[in-house]
Amino acid sequence: MTPDASPHITAGASPPAADIKAEKMLQPSQPQQPAPPPDTTASAPPSAASIVKQGPQVRLQALRAFYGSAEQVKGVDLEFPANKVTAIIGPSGCGKSTMVRCINRMHEEIPGARAEGKVLLDDIDLYDSSVDVIAVRRAIGMVFQKPNPFPTMSIYDNVASGLRLSGIGRGELRGKVESALRSAGLWEEVADRLSEPGMGLSGGQQQRLCIARSLAVDPEVLLMDEPCSALDPIATLKIEELIATLKQRVTIVIVTHNMQQAARVADRTAFMLSGEMVEVGPTQEIFTTPNDPRTEEYVTGKFG
Length: 304
What we know:
This protein is α/β, with parallel strands linked by helices and 304 residues long. The chain has eleven helices and ten strands. The protein has a single domain (45-299), classed as 3-Layer(aba) Sandwich (Rossmann fold).
């Protein structure tokens, strides 16, 4: 699909040149410095999921999203705290997935789609004209509802594909692939069959392969759009355990129709209805003592 030539979104001030994240997002003007040689003395690369680091905060300011003239997201203001899991809940068609796709600029890939407002990664306006959209999608990974490994690629090549596009040399490649697979809790299950097709894995394994593919390029935010809806309970449990581990190094946003899943994995929960943000707060409060009667009706199953 061809992206809309004009993103139709308010551009904020350009970030300071000294800002490290801003430098990563700006359109590339200088060749990257070569990476240092890998440490060949290590017996195995560390699991990236075990590394604790500060993720970024994501903020939506007056975000509106359209399909042609139809407004799907209506002036949403929302913060996703760093290193927390935020669940987005609401009935089908309320704008959850559209809002999430605006965060990493996937929405504009749909012909006729546009957005207005701001999406900020810390203080960087992701729709600023100086920002490289490819860098945005590298920093903000996405896992979709249906597992989508590349059908003609092996398990190894599925994970390595983004790394190759990023210019990672062969000397570093295997270690990074292994680290990503370990982070996704998949290494022990596939270590002896990396050359086999990714499509040959079970549904749950395919979804973790897709998570590993996203983690391989070291994102700062991970968007998950109904990642467990097509999985069995055992595979779902593994994904949920993985989410709890990954939030130590990335900020996570998960769209889900499963109230129990939101209660299990999310630190904060936001309820959307008809394109509007009704209520957001700590997950326990949203499910036990919500402020808005519409929220209470939804979480208790009276509609949706």
